[in-house]
Structures are given as C-alpha cells and as structure tokens.
TrEMBL record, chain A:
<comment type="similarity">
    <text>Belongs to the MreC family.</text>
</comment>
<feature type="coiled-coil region">
    <location>
        <begin position="71"/>
        <end position="98"/>
    </location>
</feature>
<keyword id="KW-0472">Membrane</keyword>
<dbReference type="InterPro" id="IPR007221">
    <property type="entry name" value="MreC"/>
</dbReference>
<keyword id="KW-0133">Cell shape</keyword>
<keyword id="KW-0812">Transmembrane</keyword>
<comment type="function">
    <text>Involved in formation and maintenance of cell shape.</text>
</comment>
<keyword id="KW-0175">Coiled coil</keyword>
<dbReference type="GO" id="GO:0008360">
    <property type="term" value="P:regulation of cell shape"/>
</dbReference>
Automatic annotation (TrEMBL), chain B:
<keyword id="KW-1003">Cell membrane</keyword>
<dbReference type="GO" id="GO:0008360">
    <property type="term" value="P:regulation of cell shape"/>
</dbReference>
<feature type="transmembrane region" description="Helical">
    <location>
        <begin position="60"/>
        <end position="80"/>
    </location>
</feature>
<dbReference type="InterPro" id="IPR017225">
    <property type="entry name" value="Cell_shape_determin_MreD_prd"/>
</dbReference>
<dbReference type="GO" id="GO:0005886">
    <property type="term" value="C:plasma membrane"/>
</dbReference>
<keyword id="KW-1133">Transmembrane helix</keyword>
<keyword id="KW-0472">Membrane</keyword>
<keyword id="KW-0812">Transmembrane</keyword>
<feature type="transmembrane region" description="Helical">
    <location>
        <begin position="127"/>
        <end position="154"/>
    </location>
</feature>
C-alpha cells in the first residue's frame, strides 16, 4: 500500500515535462551569468560544500600522480642534476661576491633613507605557501585551484607568486580551497611597468600567444624615444588596483609600433614556468587603493573593505 | 536511488580525474573531456531528462571551481545532455559509431560556444587558430577515449537497470 503510494508520487514527479525543467534551469543560469558579469558573485555556500567533497580527493590523486612522476624523474635526471650541481656551485661563488657588494650598497642605501626619513619602499609581504590541487577542466582558461582557502585567511584579490614572478590573482575562495586566475588567462589584465623607463603598460594574457610562443601580450606603451629594449624587465605597476607594486611579471620579448603611431605593443616572456607550477606563494596583503598609512591602519581598513 | 548515487559517484570520479591526472598526461597541453563523454553517453542511452540532469550537475561542478562566469558551463553541459537525449531512439548497445559522432559533435559544440561567449567578447577573432589548436585536438582525444570508455558505461547502465528491474519485481 505504502509502496504503491510512493510509486504514484514518483510517477507524478516524472510527469513534469523535461522541456519546462530545461527552460527553468536555463533562465536561472542566464540570471547567474548576468549577475557574475555585473556583480562578480561566486557560488557562496556551494563553494564550501563542493570544496569539502572534492578538494581532498583531488589532493590525494594529484599526490599519487606527482609522486609517480617524481620517482620517474629521479632516475632519469640524476646525471643531469650532478652536472648542474657543478655549474651551480661555480655560480654560487660568483653570486656570493656580488652579494657582498650589494650588502654594502644596501647598508649605504639604508643610511641615506634614514637621512631622508623614508620608509622601506617595498614592505615585506606576509606570504603563505600553497600547492596546486587541480587544473581547469576545459582547455581554454588557465585557472587552477590551490589547497588554501578562507580558513587560512585567503581572500579574493590576493596576489599569487611563484619562482619570484607573478602567477595571478585569487578569483574565488572556498573554505578549504581557492581558485587562481593566472596572468596568461585571456580574461586577465594587469597594469605593468617597465623598470628601466618607468613607462606604464597594459599586460593581458592570451592563450594563443602562450601556446604559440610561450609569451603574453602587452599594449599601450608610450615610448616615443625608443628607450625600451628587448629583455627589459616588467613589474606590476603602482597604478594597478589589484596587484601589489613591484612583482616581476617577465621580460620584454618583442616591441612593435601600433598603427596609430603613438603607442607600442608587443610580447613579454613570463618569469614563471606556467606548465609546471606545483607550489605557489599567496601574498596576504591586499592592494590598498587610497591612502597608505602605517601597517596596522591598513590592516584594519582591509577588514572593513571586506565586510 | 541506486542510479542517482552511482551517477553522482561517476561524475565525481570523472571530474577529479579530469582536473588532475588528465592534465598531467595531456598531449600538447590538451586534455580529453571525460565529463562530456559521460554526459553525452548517458543522455544518448537514457534520454533527454537524465542527460539534462547529469549535464547540469557536471556543469555546476565545473562552474564552481573553474568557470569564468557562474552558470555558463551549467547551461552548456545541460543542453549537450539534452540534445544527446534526443538521439535515444537510435541507441543500440553494440553500435559505437553513432556515439563517437555524437561525442565529437558535442565537443565541437561545447568548445565553439565557449569560444563565442568568452573569446569573441575579448576581440579574439581568429576562430580557425583556436579550432586547430584547441577544439579539434580535444575532439580527437575525447573520441579516442570514448572508444575505451563507451562499453564500460553501457555495462554500468545495464547493471543499474538490472538492479532497478529486480527491485521493481520485489515490490510487486
């Protein structure tokens, strides 16, 4: 009796035509797409639930995979490593002498700074290490997730670095994972600066350029005196409202004049090897727009902004 | 119930594999689309309704973790499940030709719409370049993987159906 009742109800549920469900979900999806374009929403509680289910699994499987590849690499590269070791030792000696001179110069610089009452120009950022757990399931967007989330103090908009270069920005945060949008992604735009000339440029990712030549594109360089050369290093600019100042993006690879004869554009070889990212550092300071006071003050205003 | 649990597990496993192992064994930076294979195959075997739900669930997962815009992948995967469901009447468990064509078609459809939605807006007009380096390789890998996976999925579906029939008999 009870069972047949249940089955009748089941039949009733079945009888809602698929067409209407399809339409319903379509409308909801269009609304959320529109909302995420306008208001930059994310999944909210869904993020946390999904994060708790999938992040541990991905971490485990990724762990097995990278263990196997590292074992295979161990045997393969032992000889190479020995060779490299010799080379690196030589390099260490030369770098050590360089370091000594730089230390002396730094001491001098600090003295001058004291004389001029200047704070340190680049504050030591508070960083947290994280490892990559999963990569984008489609082949279009170079995004990946890392094993740190809001419970480790990670917030949307924090900068991610690896190998001393800029990797990208946190675009979404769950409780135990967060999503990183890399600078090679087509949706990324970074305000950069050429260190030699202090010219501001706009660096944008492109999967096409990345696949073809391993570079990302830049535009809007105003350099009428042709001072910018290939190989100049590009860092994040102070005008950026999302990225901390002075993080290395890469080196100028090619420069071309635009058709308007005023600006130039070209390509940059990124400092980070995006194909083999395993560990990254997240800078826990968020970029401050507006006044830059002492450190405690900025931390407080950070809190307020995120509320 | 059993069907729902099994399908959920299947989607989870495919999602996890696709975002980890598939990415590390990818040729030329292109990985096959396991989720799409599952969605298309089950839509094809079981009809519009199930294809639609499997598609929406998988798409939602992709959206939560990686989607550029929340809902875009849900929408695309759902329609792919639905469209594959329209071909249910041509389904024979032994025939692999039609599913291969369907999956190649679905993969092309998915990637082309993604391109239209996201890349055209960013003034990336060189469709043939993307077709050559991303869409076609993914199509080829996905169809090759389908050759190995299709009969496993058919078996899985038969196993679930047998269980459902047994249970239905018991109730009567």
């Amino acid at each position: 009796m009870k069972n047949s009742h249940k089955r009748n109800r089941y039949k009733k549920q079945q009888s809602i035509p698929s067409k209407y469900i399809l339409m319903g979900i379509t409308i909801v999806c269009i609304c959320t797409i529109f909302l995420s374009l306008v208001a930059n929403i994310s999944g909210g509680p869904l993020n946390s639930v999904a994060g708790y289910v999938f992040t541990p699994m991905q971490k485990g499987i990724n762990g097995v995979g990278s263990w196997a590849t590292s074992k295979a690499n161990d045997l393969q590269t032992l000889r190479e490593v020995q060779k490299e070791n010799k080379k690196l030792k030589k390099k260490v000696y030369s770098l050590r002498t360089q370091l000594n001179t730089i230390k002396l110069e730094k001491y001098e610089l600090e003295n001058y700074r004291k004389l001029l009452n200047l704070d340190a120009k680049y504050p030591a950022y508070d960083k947290i290490a994280a490892s990559v757990v999963a990569k984008d399931s489609s082949n279009w967007f170079s995004t990946f997730t890392i094993n740190r989330g809001s419970k480790d103090g990670i917030k949307k908009g924090m900068n991610v670095i690896a190998d001393g270069g800029l990797v990208g920005i946190i675009s979404d945060v769950g409780r135990n994972y967060s999503t990183v949008r890399t600078v090679i992604n087509d949706l990324s735009n970074v305000s950069g600066m050429i260190t030699n000339t202090y010219d501001n440029i706009n660096v944008s990712g492109s999967i096409k350029e990345m696949n073809k030549n391993g570079v990302i594109t830049f535009s809007e360089l105003r350099d009428s005196d042709n001072k910018v050369k290939n190989g100049d290093s590009v860092v994040t600019s102070y005008v950026s409202d999302q990225y901390q100042q002075g993080i290395l993006i890469g080196y100028v690879d090619k420069i071309e004049k635009d058709s308007n004869n005023l600006t130039k554009s070209g390509t940059i070889t990124p400092a980070v090897d995006f194909a083999h990212i395993e560990n990254v550092l997240v800078i826990k300071n968020l970029k401050q727009t507006g006044d830059v006071g002492n450190k405690n003050k900025t931390d407080n205003s950070n809190e307020n902004q995120n509320k | 119930m059993r069907r729902k649990v099994t399908l959920f597990l299947l989607i989870s496993i495919c999602f996890v594999l696709q975002t980890t192992i598939c990415k590390s064994i990818a040729f030329a930076d292109i990985a096959p689309n396991l989720l799409l294979i599952v969605i298309a195959t089950f839509g094809f075997m079981r009809g519009r309704r199930e294809g639609m739900f499997i598609g929406a669930l998988s798409g939602l997962l992709v959206d939560i973790f990686f989607g550029p815009y929340l809902g875009l992948n849900t929408l695309l995967y759902m329609y792919i499940g639905y469209i594959n469901g329209l071909f249910k009447k041509y389904f024979y468990p032994d025939d692999i030709n039609l599913p291969l064509i369907l999956i190649a078609g679905s993969d092309w459809l998915l990637n082309t719409t993604l391109y239209l939605f996201v890349f055209i807006g960013r003034r990336r007009f060189d469709y043939f370049y993307y077709l050559k380096t991303i869409i076609v390789p993914e199509m080829v890998y996905s169809t090759i993987v389908t050759v190995f996976v299709f009969f496993l999925l058919v078996r899985l579906n038969e196993w679930i159906e047998k269980e459902e029939k047994r249970r239905a008999k018991n109730i009567e």
